[in-house]
Design a protein that fits this description.
The chain has 374 residues and is α+β, with helices and mostly antiparallel strands. The protein has ten helices and 23 strands. The protein has a four-stranded mixed beta sheet. Strands 7-8-9 form a three-stranded antiparallel beta sheet, covered by helices on one side. The chain has a three-stranded antiparallel beta sheet with strand order 11-12-14, with helices on one face. A hairpin with a 2-residue loop joins strand 15 and strand 16. Helix 5 packs across helix 6. The protein is elongated.
Length: 374
């Protein structure tokens, strides 16, 4: 990529690569061009002044000024490809590298105009995988806000009363929806956006990404997974805890202890140079040796049915994935460590922290206790 002209046409609210390269939040699509180390963005009049003040680029151009360079008959219908065409011609650019999610409409239009458009799959800027100290600080800030929301949720469950096997708070039936609403409201007050927050109880907890619905029950696992995005920085936090109000069965308690030990085992193996498949495989084998099999059980995939973790940053799921791949961890990677066990008859248990990889191990950025019975 060193000598390629780079082109992105996207909203930086939806393109982590664009936000990473410009540090500029824009809700509508903009044009980004990087040529010979010079970063240029082309903005509408609505965003022009803000872009000049906030964007970490070398040059901010006006979309409307470039539209005036088109023949009068084309100005009203001017699209992004028309503006890119003018800029490329002015600068003698004949080809560009675009990210994997680049809209095919723009790629086709630019190819019809004679440009060579090539696509790069995966992270457009691979340096995103190695987080700077400032990025670690921003992720830690999102995690602190995640902690406050988790604390609120667990306090609601802890303060509830058990009646006929269900949880009641201040005389009202406590539901997944109520807790999710409070979590999301708290995060909004803290300057974060949250979507698809998980508060899953009982059989719902046995499905890793079930968001949860309806009443919360006593003596059953409640999986709480919160992953907000900072509205200011764009960086995510991510944390999961599993709790029980009441008396869990011995099998459920043993499953929780096993997942907790599995997470500690994973944390002990994380360091610069470690193979992710060794980390994941070791936890998988530990679960099996502890009596918790993974595979098709009663017609359903059960056990440890997802990867150990994933990269975290400007996207909730980004490389490196900590699973059965050949990826090798490097210093500066920020990853989640979230082993879990899921069985239809018992429910699910997942515990998740976020760590930064170091040469001799890892540093846990998550500062919240792990309690099962509350």
């Amino acid at each position: 990529m060193k000598h390629d002209t780079l082109l992105i046409i996207a909203s930086s609210e939806n393109s982590a690569d664009l936000l990473y390269r410009t540090s500029f939040f824009a809700p509508d699509p903009i044009i980004f061009i990087e040529n010979r180390g010079k970063k240029t963005i082309i903005l509408s009049d609505l965003e022009l002044d803000r872009g000049k003040e906030e964007a970490d680029v070398d040059e901010v151009l006006s979309f409307s000024e470039y539209r005036k360079k088109l023949p009068s008959r084309k100005r009203k219908q001017a699209g992004f490809a028309d503006i890119v065409n003018i800029v490329f011609k002015e600068r003698g650019i004949k080809s560009a590298l675009v990210p994997g999610d680049f809209p095919i409409k723009y790629a086709d239009e630019l190819r019809e105009l004679g440009y060579r458009i090539r696509c790069k799959e995966g992270l457009f800027f691979e340096e995103r995988m190695k987080k700077t100290p400032e990025e670690v600080r921003l992720i830690s800030d999102s995690l602190r806000k995640t902690k406050k929301a988790m604390e609120l949720a667990i306090n609601m469950i802890s303060s509830s009363k058990i009646q006929d096997g269900k949880l009641f708070l201040n005389g009202s039936l406590l539901t997944s929806e109520m807790i999710k609403g409070e979590i999301n409201s708290e995060l909004s007050r803290l300057g974060c956006t949250a979507s698809n927050t998980i508060v899953a109880c009982g059989i719902h907890s046995s499905m890793p990404h079930h968001r949860g619905e309806g009443p919360l029950f006593a003596n059953q696992p409640i999986v709480i997974d919160i992953f907000p995005r900072s509205q200011e920085s764009g960086y995510f936090g991510d944390m999961t805890r599993t709790v029980v109000k009441g008396e869990p069965s011995k099998d459920l308690e043993r499953m929780y202890r096993t997942v907790l030990k599995g997470q500690r085992l994973g944390l002990s193996l994380i360091r610069h140079g470690a193979k992710v498949k060794d980390i994941h495989g070791t936890i998988l084998e530990f679960f099996k040796e502890s009596g918790f099999e993974t595979g098709m059980i009663d017609g359903k995939q059960q056990g440890f049915i997802h990867s150990t973790g994933h990269g975290l940053g400007l996207e909730i799921h980004e490389p490196p994935r900590v699973g059965l791949t050949d990826t090798i961890l490097k210093e500066g990677n920020v990853i989640t460590v979230e082993p879990g066990l899921y069985y239809e008859k018992l429910g699910g248990v997942r515990i998740e922290d976020v760590v930064v990889v170091k040469k001799g191990g890892c540093v846990n950025l998550t500062r919240y206790p792990k309690r099962f019975r509350i």
